[in-house]
Specification:
It is built from 10 helices and 10 strands. It is α/β, with parallel strands linked by helices. It has one domain: Rossmann fold (3-Layer(aba) Sandwich), CATH 3.40.50.11610. Helix 9 links the parallel strand 9 and strand 10. The longest helix is centred in the C-terminal third of the chain and has 16 residues.
Length: 289
């Protein structure tokens, strides 16, 4: 209730927010519209397909994204002054999936520095606590630095964007699976990977710049979640609204399923490799054309 305190509620696993669903639905999601009360509570929800079974994998991002109040079919005025802050002011809550410790630091800091209060939903993969590549220089947390809504490709692909054949959009820890596979296949000049760190409000302006940077690349959304779960149904119409191209935005990820994750480790690894094969097979989407 306090507007001056940073209050965080953390689930042992993000799945366990289901026991708080009525509170989330009744008070946190519609708090300002329904009760005329701003609140800045932060929900830290460990989320990620890490082979730990159906009860310890999914924080159900699709539920939170479905309850966001932005219109997927309307491209806002991207030239508006303070576009990113105005988006935050208009939304009912903020949904992020940070892939670096620096961005995690900045999103929590921003939460208390904003001149208004909005709930913040943070998907926090447990494996990134120990991942050797999930690190941030202190230089990125000094004065003058800020939260990055989108982290663009900064490797060889970005140096010569006209050679890039595929641009992958993703969010969260799956980025590290994708970069590892890209390096193993020696495709660092052919495939660019862009991370969406803030899913809602949707960063229309930054993603438009990314798509325009790679004019010859086909576009794909990558996620480790099943197709009927995760971020795909939220991201797909917004990417189509943002990017005016004849070619569609393809999907690379797990097939639809009733359970959030398999309970078998071998099946988990097979599913992961299958979707990585799709993401980096440059002929994979031709059969859909």
């Amino acid at each position: 209730a306090s507007p001056n305190a940073l209050v965080l509620w953390e689930a042992q696993f993000g799945d366990f927010n289901n026991m708080a669903q009525c509170i989330i639905d009744q008070f946190i999601c519609p708090g300002q519209a329904k009760w005329v009360r701003q609140n800045g509570i932060v929900l830290l929800l460990p989320h990620g397909m890490e082979g730990m079974g159906p009860e310890h994998s999914s924080a159900r991002p699709e539920r939170f994204l479905q309850m966001c109040n932005d219109d997927p079919d309307v491209l806002p005025d991207l030239q508006e002054e303070n576009f990113d802050i105005n988006q935050l002011y208009d939304c009912n809550w903020i949904v992020v999936n940070c892939s670096t410790p620096g961005n995690f630091f900045h999103v929590l800091r921003r939460q208390i520095l904003l001149p208004f209060r909005k709930p913040l939903i943070v998907f926090t993969p447990k494996s990134l606590l120990r991942h050797p590549e999930a690190r941030t220089s202190f230089d990125e947390m000094l004065p003058g630095t800020h939260f990055q809504r989108v982290i663009p490709e900064n490797g060889p692909a970005a140096q010569d964007p006209h050679k890039v054949k595929r641009l992958l959009f993703c969010t969260g820890k799956v980025y590290y699976d994708l970069t590892r596979e890209r390096k193993a296949r020696n495709m660092e000049e052919e495939v660019a990977i862009t991370r969406i760190e803030q899913l809602s409000p949707f960063p229309f302006d930054l993603l438009l710049k990314e798509a325009q940077k790679y004019p010859n690349a086909e576009l794909a959304w990558c996620q480790e979640e099943h197709k009927n779960q995760g971020y795909y149904d939220y991201v797909k119409p917004r990417l189509r609204t943002t990017i005016d191209r004849a070619k569609p935005v393809w999907y690379a990820g797990r097939d639809p399923a009733a359970a959030p994750a398999t309970g078998n480790k071998k099946t988990h690894l097979t599913e992961l490799q299958r979707f990585l094969d799709t993401a980096f097979d440059l002929d994979a989407f031709k059969k859909f054309s």
